[in-house]
Specification:
The chain is mainly beta. The chain folds into 2 domains: about 25-205, Pectate Lyase C-like; about 220-390, Single-stranded right-handed beta-helix, Pectin lyase-like (Pectate Lyase C-like). The chain starts with a helix and ends in a 5-residue tail after the last strand. The protein has 4 helices and 29 strands. It has an 11-stranded parallel beta sheet with strand order 5-7-9-12-15-17-19-21-23-25-28. The structure holds 2-acetamido-2-deoxy-beta-D-glucopyranose (NAG). 2-acetamido-2-deoxy-beta-D-glucopyranose binds near residues 228, 229, 258 and 260. 2-acetamido-2-deoxy-beta-D-glucopyranose binds near residues 228, 229 and 258. GO terms for molecular function: polygalacturonase activity.
Length: about 400
């Protein structure tokens, strides 16, 4: 039996030698008691590694070696004493398979009020299947957790992160500035409920590049208060497409502005590029959106604006959306629709969509030109546009 104190002494020696050698401080979670067996709860070791890295006056690295590390739930909170924390993950973080453990906490892994955190590699295994089954059976189940959230944080990098089978959303960016995500892989069953791939809200300067998202809800969803977003080189499907929305749920709501979505392949998805707003009063808005170079492969609704979103017909019937949608461009969108109506602009009678531009669109349904439908939508078409524009 080794005295537990000796681990602490070893860890301290390790830390001392690292810093005395002048290299950035590095904390290997194994040295802090984590076990790569997928069964031993390693939460404390991860939190201790975070406390050390966050408390360091100089740049610090947390290293997670190969293996499966069980984490019950963990909040990595700032502010920290340095703004250059690197988390290098060669292993897999595993959520408890029993969804009652996380219960209604809402988040599995969350970073709060941090600045300058970069995550390289890593796999997050949310083990969400049990909760999906519970929900599908119509039982009363906990709401479920987002696998990874950054909230109230700035200057974040995620490169090469994989998220599997989240209970609810995979990755959430909330109230953040300057976030770069690259080479993210998201995977969950096409019929897993509410498993949005990447959800962004109340954030500015978020870039998502070169990522592959297969899931049961939106591949990427963009909520109120999002601006200066750049999304490029994405493979989406199965999933519900890339959505701006749902917006306009609240009477007072921040708008969505300056969003570029380019070079995306949608395969067998429910939607392609979508804007959706609740059919109820709101001061929300969407303006300055470019959807460019999209390939649709058997997509049910390739281009859609839906301002009559009203799930369960509660709190909206008889009302119209207050969200103002303007300056939305669809450029070089082509491929196949799985339904007759490939372009559907269903805008608000009180706030018609304006400045909608279609440029070089070619969408077919069963080898024939598809149809377009416009309600309260104004704008222009240029170049080759099929289905024939109804703007
Ligand atoms: C729009 O967002 C991009 C980043 O996606 C940014 O580079 C550009 O400056 C923004 N434009 C305006 C007018 O803010």
């Amino acid at each position: 039996m080794v005295h537990p104190m000796s681990f602490l002494v070893l860890a301290l020696l390790f830390i001392f030698f690292n810093s005395s050698l002048g290299s950035p401080l590095s904390y290997n979670v194994l040295n802090l008691g984590a076990r790569p067996d997928g069964k031993t709860d390693s939460t404390k070791a991860f939190l201790n590694a975070w406390a050390a890295a966050c408390g360091s006056e100089t740049p610090a690295t947390i290293y997670v070696p190969p293996g499966r590390f069980l984490i019950s739930t963990a909040a990595f909170r700032g502010p920290c004493k340095n703004s250059a924390i690197t988390i290098r993950i060669d292993g897999t973080l595993v959520a408890p398979s029993d969804y009652h453990v996380i219960g209604n906490v809402g988040n599995w892994l969350v970073f709060e009020s941090v600045d300058g955190v970069s995550v390289y590699g890593g796999t997050l295994d949310g083990q969400g299947a049990g909760l999906w089954t519970c929900k599908a059976a119509g039982n009363s189940c906990p709401g479920g957790a987002t696998s990874l959230e950054f909230t109230n944080s700035n200057n974040i990098v995620m490169d090469g992160l994989t998220s599997l089978n989240s209970q609810m959303f995979h990755i959430v960016i909330n109230s953040c500035q300057n976030v770069k995500m690259q080479g993210v892989k998201v995977s969950a069953s096409g019929n897993s409920p509410n498993t949005d791939g990447i959800h962004v809200q109340s954030s500015t300067g978020v870039t998502i590049l070169g990522s592959s998202i297969k899931t049961g809800d939106d591949c990427i969803s963009i909520g109120p208060g999002s601006s200066n977003l750049w999304i490029e080189n994405i493979a989406c499907g199965p999933g519900h497409g890339i959505s701006i929305g749902s917006l306009g749920k609240d009477l007072q709501e921040a708008g969505v502005q300056n969003v570029t979505v380019k070079t995306v392949t949608f395969t067998g998805t429910e939607n392609g590029v979508r804007i959706k707003a609740w059919g109820r009063p709101s001061d929300g808005f969407v303006k300055g959106v470019l959807f460019q170079h999209a390939t649709m492969v058997n997509v049910q609704n390739p281009i859609v604006i839906d301002q009559n979103y009203c799930p369960g017909n509660e709190g909206c019937p008889g009302q119209v959306s207050g969200v103002k949608i303007s300056d939305v461009t669809y450029q070089d969108i082509h491929g196949t629709s799985a339904t007759d109506v490939a372009v559907n602009f269903d805008c608000s009678s009180k706030n018609p969509c304006s400045g909608i531009k279609l440029e070089d669109v070619k969408l077919t349904y069963m080898n024939q030109p598809a149809q377009a439908s416009c309600v309260n939508a104004g704008g222009t078409a240029s170049g080759f546009v099929e289905p024939t524009s109804c703007l």
